[in-house]
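User: Okay, second chain of the day. Same drill as before: sequence in, structure tokens out.
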Amino acid sequence: MVIESLVLFALLMGLLSALSLPLGTLTTLIWTPGDRATAWLMAFGAGALLSAVTIDLFAPAINKGLFFDVALGAILGSLFYLLINHQLNKQGGFLRKTATMIQYFRNQQKIQRQKLQLSFNRLTIFNELTQDDQYLLYQHMQRRDYKANSIIFHSNDLLNEFYIIHKGAVNLREPKFGLKKVDELKEFDAFGQFGFFSSMRSSLVAQASEDVSLWVLNRTDFNNLLALSPTLFESLKEYFKESNELQAYLKKYHYMDDAASEKQLEVIQTTLEEEKRLPYARESREFFEPALARLKASRRFDLLDSCQPELYSLLASKVKLRQARAGETLFANKSEADRLYLLESGSIELIDPKKHSMNNEVLSPGDFFGGMAFVVGGLHSSTAIACNDVSYWVLEKADFQHLLNDVAPLYEKLQVYLKEKCIHQYLINEQSLSETKAQKWVKQSVKQLVPGHMPNLAGANQRIYQHNAAYLAIWLGIFLDGIPESLMIGAHTSNGHMISVSLIAAIFISNYPEALSSSASMKEQGIPFNKILFAWTSLMVLTGLGAALGSVLLSDATPQTFALISGMAAGAMLTVIAETMLPEAYTKGGSITGFVTLMGFLCAVLFKVFDSTI
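Assistant: Same drill. Structure tokens below.
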């Protein structure tokens, strides 16, 4: 009977101490705290918890001469928390709190900088740079992410930036051989650098073979670096004089002879010597009139039929002229449809794997192609191969989205076009959607379509990791944070049925701002409110159950064991305070954080003054 009442008492005390967790979540429905309010609440709660850890956990053990027992427990508790927390953060658990997010991204930046320095050392032009110059270079690099199968650049694109792989893999494909993979690049590998330094267009296609994260350096930032770093400037001059990499590249991929390649590099060296920069590779501005004439006479794409003259003019200002040799592949079946094509000269054969080769469609000048896949944001259902030397116009997805944002009639035409029967049939026949899924996709796409955006069929078919896979890690992280509290309450209720009001009050006070801040942070990550409320409510229940279980397991514990368990709870809780609560409070609240922490500490001590044993 005593055991049963002790367990029930521990359960109730655990639930009461954690009741502030769902209360903090519910508060976000009516009030989202600002940075200063969050900082003060967090600091106050940290101070209260420091009081509980010091007075209710460490002090009793030390008074009984069990310092080494409680100290050993504190060390073990801290190390256990750090180990599990590190593993959960790698899976997305860091999203549960602002402080863990800040710490995670700081660590990631440090790791990225170290990896990037390794990559620099593998490039001839950068391996003589000082650490200061490498750090300056790192500051100018941009991070860019691509989904699996995304095209990073196409053949014949201007290369005003080059890339280093941070994570993932990239395939380089040769248009002459049906976009066959000619090289697979891994972490730390650079690509696009030869076209970048020789001011030439790309000769290959770069495609992400899996989700990939890249460091990118554009020409403008690189030229700024040349002005800031004499070492980089001298290294680049030496590279042009001594290295034969660029000349070999021009011969192999751009079919230049010795004279042509030397002349190309001399032009770049002259600009570098005289102006201390690399020359810019720019699209020609002389093609507006030819592009406008071709657009007005275009076929095979109903969305752009019978447009207003003003829209044709805007399109002509956005399209870019490209060339391909006979036999080269412009895009392949199942590749990303990230641009719209319009044939200017020559002929293109569209090879549909579902049709007999005798039925392949051959396009002539004035024909749009790749339009359906482009509009729905899907993958190409055919392969486009140049029958002879061709020239063609391309409209990039980003440019088309800008037009959708700026030109209301085009946006309205797209809404109507998505409802056309041809789109419905295309989704079924070419994108392998069922009748029901095609209807549902069209309905949702039209409903969700907003100016400046396009449908994304390929993205809709992918599993979104950000809010699904990471949610379990976030929940486990929250659960990990609550384990020390369960241990604290369970340990005290097992100790002769003795627990102080100050301990329960301190945990209650500290839990409220923690749940309030974390719930607001999780909402910013796009996690639904019902999932957030479930996470914190379930933690309240588990805290109660953990306290009840702890009271049973520790009912016959020796003083040494009790001190060890109390130390583990205290060590883990001190680690939580130092790693998450106080850093977040100081980041958002500044120097007042120390004073507010003191107020929380004194408030919990005040409970101790008036404490009567329950």
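The longest strand covers residues 161-167.

User: Thanks, on to the next one.
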